[in-house]
Specification:
Blueprint: H1 2-20, E1 29-30, H2 32-52, H3 58-76, E2 81-82, H4 89-110, H5 120-130, H6 133-144, H7 149-161, H8 165-177, H9 183-196, H10 203-215, H11 220-232, H12 236-249, H13 257-270, H14 290-297, H15 301-321, H16 326-338, H17 342-355, H18 360-371, H19 385-395, H20 400-412, H21 416-429, H22 435-445
Antiparallel strand pairs: 1-2
Helix pairs in contact: 1-4, 2-3, 6-7, 7-8, 8-9, 9-10, 10-11, 11-12, 12-13, 15-16, 16-17, 17-18, 18-19, 19-20, 20-21, 21-22
Length: 452
Amino acid sequence: MILFWIIAGVLTLAAAVVLAAPLFDTRKFKSEDAFALEVYRDQLGELTRDEQRGLLTPEQARAAQIEIERRILALDEGKKFQPARPPSHRLTLAMAVILPLAGFGLYLLLGSPHLPSQSAMERLAEERTRTSPEIQALEAKVEQSPSDAQSWIDLGRAYADIERAKDAADSFAKAMALGRKEPDLLRQFAHAAIVAEGGRVTSEAQAALQRTLSADPGDPTSRFFLALAKAQNQDVEGALADWLTLERQLPPEAPLRQLLADNIDKAARQLGKDPAKLPGRTGGSAGPSAEDMAAAEQMTPEQRQAFIESMVERLAAKMKEEPDNLEGWIRLANAYGVLEQRDEARAAWAEAAKRAPSRLDVQLDYAGALIQGRTDLAKAVPAELPEAVKRIRTLDPENPLGLFYAGVVARAEGRPDEAKALWEKVLALMPEGSTERQQLQREIDTLGKPAN
């Protein structure tokens, strides 16, 4: 045993001498500011990558960038290097011998050598939990009431606030398993799951986003990330088409718009296309210019209506000259929809659907236009709807809107059991207590009853 301590002492002394050798160097030592500067530069690079992956909005990224740049400027105000003063050789040797021995003695006196070791990650996790009483209280609450969905939601949000994305996603998933299906929860789960996977849109996140769309078909965040999932699964062409459709429908002031434009540009270049020349992005002679829109803001409601109608007429005339312009037909159909000219909108969507048989979004919009405003669907449906529904279900058999439209056709054709089975699938995707769910439930309850 004595031999062990002698060997240990010799090794300790040798290590101390090696570590103390740099103290004899009288060259200038670099200050900690230089190291901090490198860290901040790395953070700026990571910030750019997070924005490109869609984990941060442009506003969040800009705010973080300003804060990092402020810290860099603060570093620049100080000295970059500090001169070192040569230490005394005797003092250095004494420190190399005495300090390790003194430290070892203090450890024997005050330490706990009998306790098992703990990794740095374990200590960090333990420290984070120990300094977060809110997390501790919420964890204790779900342990006491594991069937309380709201407690799991509160815990998930707290985890998300401290960037524990995996724990947040797991907590939200527990709440969903307990019956909570509201769109806001589904979005939070999807976001946490995506962050936990480093920006990858997982199959679970996709399912949550699809459920969100069943309750809110226009939800831009869900549509953006579902398109991103296509891009990540090598369907860049499909992602680009979905993003272009979303870009046309987003208002100019939407927070998602810049991130959306960046992803469109990236996808277009990946496909060897010029982003500025993509259909529907350049306005053209039939679309409103910036000057047109500025002038429209100064018009009376009657003048503005006439102005819009004249632009739609120009676009319709252009489509007669360019009948194969798919994006033009889509713009024209949306314009007619805004003007509530439903017959014209249906005709334009029919042209678009004919030119894009494999575009699910176009086929869904066409089917929606066919039944929009009709009050007699329980008795009969437009002759074109069954074929449109068939195309939709070929492209995606479980699409919620496709299931709903198929139920409309089945009911009108005298197959109430089939309609009920289809609509119950849709019902299961809708959040409890939502207006849409209640309306669909009423439709299901009327199946098999004589139509008025």
